[in-house]
Every structure is written in C-alpha cells, then in structure tokens.
Amino acid sequence: MRTRGRAPRTGPDPLAVAGRTIACAVSVAVLGASGFTWYEYRSLDDGMTKSGALGEAKKNAPPHLDKSVNLLLIGLDSRKDMDGNDLPKQFVEDELHAGSSEIGGYNTNALIVLHIPANGGKVTALSVPRDDYVQTVGADGRMHKIKEAYGIAKETAEQKLSSKGLSKAELERQSREAGRSATIQTVQSFLGIPIDHFAEVNLIGFYDIAKAVEPIQVCLNHPVDDPIIARTANHEGGGTGLKLPAGVSSLDAAKALSFVRQRHHLTNGDLDRTHRQQAFISSVEYKLKQQGIFNDLGQMQKLFGVVKKDVVIDDEWNILDFAQQAPNLTGGNVEFNTLPIAGFRTIGGQEVNTVNPDLIKKIVRQLFSRDPAPVPAAPADGGDSAAPSPSASPGTAAPTPAKDKATVDVLAVAAAGPGAAADESKALTELGYPAGRVGDAAGRAKNTTVTYGSGARADAQAIAARYGVTATPASGLAAGRVVVTLGSSHAGTPTATPSATPSASPTGDAATDPVANLPMQGPAVKAGGIPCVD
C-alpha cells in the first residue's frame, strides 16, 4: 500500500489501475455532452454488457435521503477478459509491464462513488482507499481489505457452481456477478449510502479508452523515475518504467497506464496513486471538452466501440434517461476527494488501512447532503476498525482507544491563514487523535511538516499522509507526541495547477462551503483543467 520508508512488501504487485475507471466516466460524459441522435444512443445502450448484480444489493441498501443518484465506478484488477481467458502476454507483460495473468486476481483497486445531486450542481466524487480494512458483505462476512470483497465472493461462487457443468465463459460470468454484488453491498454498508448504478471496467478497458483519446496531458508536482525491477525468487519485482519531468507531459495509452499504476517511489504509496487516478480522469474529461471530441463523429465512434466492448453496467441503468444528468460531469463541475484513514496496521501478514466506520458515514452524509451541521467528533475510543472484538455486532468493529494514539500539537505560520491551527487540530481530533497544544509557529516556512517522538511513528506517518509529506523523528519531542507545523502552502489547497489551465484550487464560495474542511485524505482534486499531483 505505502512506501513510507519501508522495504517493498512481499507478494504480487497489485495493479491499481484506477485510471481505468475513466472508461466509466467517459461513457457517462459521452452520453451527456454529444449531440447524437436517439438512434445512436439506442445503439449504444443495446450493445452494452449488462449485469444484474445491483438487484440483490438494493434489497439491503440504506434509504435515500433525496432523489440524487449515486454511481459506483469499479476498476477491476484483472488480466483476464470477460470469458475468463488470459489477456495476451505480449500486451500485458511486454507492452504494459503489468505482470502476468497470475497476479492481481480480482481485486477492485479503484472504487469511486459519484454523487450526482437531484437538481444539478456540483458532482462529488469520493475515492475509497483500496486497503481499507472493513466488514465485507456478501463475500464471507469477515473483515478484509475492501478491494478483496469481489475476489472472495467470486471464488466462493465458482466453487458452488463448478459442479453444474457450466462452460468456462458462463462460469466466469456468473461468478463475476457474485463479486460485483459483494462489492456493491460492502461499499453501501461502509459508506452508509445506497448505490443506484454501477459501471465496471478492467485493465484492457482502461487501455482501450486511453488509446482512443491519446495523447493525454497530465501534470506532476515533482519528476518521477520508476524503473522496472525484474521479479526474482527473493523480490516481488515491480516498477512501471515511467520517467517524467515535473510539469505537464503528454502520454500515450501505455504511459497513461503507468501513470495510474505507479506506487513505488511515491511518498504516500497508494494514497498518492489515488490522487493520480482522480487527476487523470479530470485531464481526460478536460481534453474531451476542450478539443470538441464530443462533436467529432470519428472519435465518438471509437469511444462507443470501447464502451460496448469493455464496460459492464447494471441492467437498471437507462442510458437515455441518465444522459440528462451527465452534463454535470463535463464542465469542470466535479470535485474528487479521498476518504480518510485512521492509521496503518499489519494483520495476518498484510498491511491494511485502519478506518473509523462511524466517522466515514458521518463525512459521507454531510458531504452528500451539503449539510451545514459539523461532523461530530470521533468516539472517544477512536473508532479504529482494525481489531474487531468478539462482542462487536455484525458490521461493526471495535475501535482502538484514543489513549493509544499519539497526542498531536498543531502549529501554523501566519501565512497559513487565521484559525488554521485550530481548524486542523479539530479535524485531527475527529480522526481520533488527542488534541495537544494549538498555536503559532515562528518563521515563514512554505511546506507543512510532521515530526514525532518515540513510539509515535505509525501515527505520525498516517497524519503526514494527509498533507503529502514524510514524517520525521525529532529527538527533542516527548514520547507519544506528534507536532504538525502548517506552512504557508496550507492556505487554500496545496494542489498545483499549470497557469495555462483553469485553477484546480477552490474558488467562489468554496471558502465558505460548510463541508470544505471535512477531514479528507489529502487535498481535493478539482475537475475543469489539468491538476498537478505527486
């Protein structure tokens, strides 16, 4: 999941091709922004691969608060086609450097919920970190990384169906349906919201979409060099081969895949990669809009062909009706956020993200309703879901006591803005960290820093991930203490944007938005341009 100064974990390198979910976003945007005829819409709808997995999930879904629409985008980590056949070795291993068909399995390494308001307005997109340790639903009912719900349910279904004499393709189809249902139900339970529609795309779907619209511009805050490391008996291998300078670069489809899969040599590992997913989706949507591809029949036909071939949608999704809502996704009117984690832990030999399920539900409810009421502070015990107690009720995990977490002092330079230290201290308290000293910091430092005393390393690293920085030890700090010093870049959002494109920083009423200060995992990524990320 994270580099965090550690040696690479053992085991296969999971492919988090969250950028592949652009296929889903593009399919929605295509429908809403183009001027094509009813016949062409109907032709696309009739050619889509449909799934009935939403039916079972809706039976146990939380109630709707209004007539808004929640769309789940699923990026499936699979090197197999829809019939269960391996993707061509030359394509997967040689061209994309994505490993063999034996690794990756059926993890959902990209889970993004798009919340589309009933009466228009800002579309909110929430990414769920793939290693969040949660109660799964519809799989085996145990605690797992959220990405594993699909594969566990699929494997269980395969075992039950294997004696029925089904063809390989039909066995693959039916077992994948179980995986989709488990994923939808787990997301619903974790976030406390109903899922109205979903779209799923895998590795080859991402590549085909990127191929249809290449070159695609992306922007990096820092140069990257991610050399390919060969897999050996003593090393898992990995690396994407991506080498890009800071600033804007134009990528072909293969490099686009590397851009969204890189996890080595990133300060915050998968958490940084999640922001790359969001930035890539924004960049592709921006290109489609700015270059008039929506009105280019040849380019549109390419996209239509890809969507039909590679994307799976639910059978309740009426594309013609949904097209009326899709323009909200094509004008820079989307904001991407990443749900916060509470910390890191190793369970059963795997590194996982610990989370506070109650806090997550409160954040989602407030964000989706734009409710001005503040998110209540986290329970006194911190709400860490990583170690469920035997007495915990189904779907609930016993939290880690806050007394076991580091006490956090928050200081801020004057340029960070009035009340910045107090606001950030409150946000960290809501994540379960006991509040320490809050005050002013001397100097005019630009960058935020996180330092820690003995025994507070894990908490400091989790906190540092919020700001995209690396936590460092400080010999003068008391044991169990973390100090966050907010630099001047903390004002607004730290996401940079090339001057030639619209700003990705909050504008207009964003500063007074009652949900703008919700505790998220790093800065928001704003659509409508080419946002820079790490």
CATH fold node name of the largest domain: Aminopeptidase
Helix content: 25-40%
Question: Which regions contain 5 or more consecutive residues with pLDDT less than 50?
Answer: 1-36, 376-402, 492-512
**Major sheet details:** 8 strands, mixed
Structural features:
534 residues, alpha/beta, Aminopeptidase, Alpha-Beta Plaits, 2 domains, eight-stranded mixed sheet, five-stranded mixed sheet, 31% helix, 19% strand, disordered N terminus
What does this structure look like?
- With 534 residues, the chain is of the alpha/beta class.
- The chain folds into 2 domains: 18-338, Aminopeptidase; 344-369 and 376-493, Alpha-Beta Plaits (2-Layer Sandwich).
- It is built from 14 helices and 22 strands.
- It has helices at residues 22-33, 38-47, 54-59, 89-95, 149-161, 168-191, 203-213, 253-261, 270-290, 297-310, 319-322, 357-369, 420-430, 457-467; strands at 49-51, 69-77, 107-116, 123-127, 133-135, 143-145, 197-202, 216-220, 224-226, 242-244, 247-251, 311-314, 334-338, 343-347, 350-354, 407-412, 435-440, 449-452, 472-473, 481-486, 525-526, 532-533.
- The strands form 6 sheets. It has an 8-stranded mixed β-sheet with strand order 1-12-7-2-3-4-13-21, sandwiched between helices. A 5-stranded mixed β-sheet has the order 17-16-20-18-19, covered by helices on one side.
- Helix 1 runs parallel beside helix 9, helix 1 (22-33) crosses helix 10 and helix 8 runs antiparallel to helix 9.
- The longest helix is centred in the middle third of the chain and has 24 residues, at 168-191.
- The two termini are 16 Å apart.
- Mean pLDDT is 74; it is low at 1-36, 376-402 and 492-512.
